[in-house]
Structures are given as C-alpha cells and as structure tokens.
Fold this sequence. Notes:
The chain is globular and about 60 Å long. It is built from nine helices and no strands. It is mostly helical. Helices cover 75% and strands 0% of the residues.
Amino acid sequence: MATWLAQRRLRQQVCDMRPQLYRTAFAWCHDAALADDLVQEAMMKALTRLKTLQDEAALKAWVFRIMTNCYRDWGRRQKDTVDVDSIDLPCDDCPEKQTERGRVVQDVRRAMARLSDDHRQVVALVDLEGFAYAEVSEVLEVPIGTVMSRLSRARAQLRKLLLEQAAPESPTLRLVRTHGE
Length: 181
C-alpha cells in the first residue's frame, strides 16, 4: 500500500512540474509546439519509468534530465532553425508596458537563440528555472565546474549580444546597463 501511495505522490509531482518543464523547453527551442512536444515526451517517459527512480529527492533533476535527453534527440534529428521574430508574446499590461516588455523579451530571445546549445541550456536552467549548479550538473551530466564556466561565458556572451543589438534608447539597453554594472 505504501509503495502505491508513494508512486501516486511522485506521479502528481511530475505532473506539477509541467509549467517549469514548458518554460525551460521553450527557452531552449523558442517554439511553443515543439516545447509542448518535448514536455509531453519527457513527462510520458518519466511517468512510465518512475519505478526506476532511485532517489525521490532527485525527482526534479531526474525529470529535467529526461527532457534534456529528449531535446538532444530532437536536435540530432533536426537541421532547421526557428525564426524567433515570428513568435507573438501575450501580455496583460497596458499597451506601453506591453510594447516595452515585448521588445526586451524579443531582444533577450534573439540573443539567447544566438548562444550555443550548451550555453542556452545552462542559462535557462539556472537563471530561468532557479536550479542549483549541482542540479544542473546532474541534469546535463557534466561536472559542476563546467556548469559554472558555461554559465559565466553564457552570461558574458548574452550581455555582449544584447548591447550589440539594442537601439540607443531601448528598454533593453537600459536594463543591460542597469544590471550589468
């Protein structure tokens, strides 16, 4: 009985991760439909292989590792790129804030898309999803030092790209200058 209850609890925890998985998948691929597909595939694999999980405390990293592998598999099968400029961004604020936020988000997405997969994955997991370096190390199956160096290089590259592509008085430029100094 306890095993059944534990499995049920773990299944619910996996299902509750869907929004986080989606945000991360979208940050990696910049395509809503593909992000949905990656999340669905990762959740299906996680739910069907739940009995193989050895440490319940590592559930989140385990599920994200599964999604990382799904993304890698997809990447091996693809040669096409996604046009991030064609993505519409919904916003509930007033039109001025919506426009400003949309510009910043588009600038960041454009810059993120120019990062290597390794850098994009680390930035998304640490900065968007709040994973600890040790968890990212587990998810991506790389040493923690590699996570830290990739993150440092990715942030520097992201800042450089944002500064290069921003218009003189853009909200992105103000944001990068404020947070980068």
